[in-house]
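FORM 7B: Structural annotation worksheet

SECTION A. Query
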Amino acid sequence: MSIDTRPTTARRTLRIALATTVAVSALLLATGCSVLQDIVPNKTPQKHFASYADAPRSGESEDVAFFMPAWVPADAEDIDVRLHASQPGYVIRFDSARGVDLDDCTELDGSYGGPAMTADFLPEDLPTTGLVTCGDGRAVAEIGEHWYGWTTKEAVPGDDGQTLRTQD
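SECTION B. Predicted structure
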């Protein structure tokens, strides 16, 4: 009597699945996981614009996520913007010789919980006084030679309803 030593269909399928898993794992390791970055979307995208003219503005672009707030002056340069795609959060940093027109802004009486998110270009020690809001629900401040704006955790006066908040 002879014993059939040929692999069964189930064993063959298991071997193929294991070989595929090993091959995909090796590919991910060899590419530095860049394939995963293409598959999994970035939830905190960040963009840099050399000047205000390079950045999208309301009504002029389909890139609604990165519109420049109305209070950002036309001479703004070296603009960094980071936002959170699925939670509250928006941070902007830029340089401007003219600066923000503070006549159109309202002084804030606190930090409103601080920024709703962080960004590598946002200073670690943000001021809690001397902040203003310019009608879009963000705190705005000049810190050193740069201007910054950020979504706060708590609603600020003059919030236009478009700024997302954290849900505690």
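SECTION C. Observations
The helical segments are 9-30, 34-39. The two ends are 72 Å apart (CA to CA).

SECTION D. Sign-off
Analyst initials: ____
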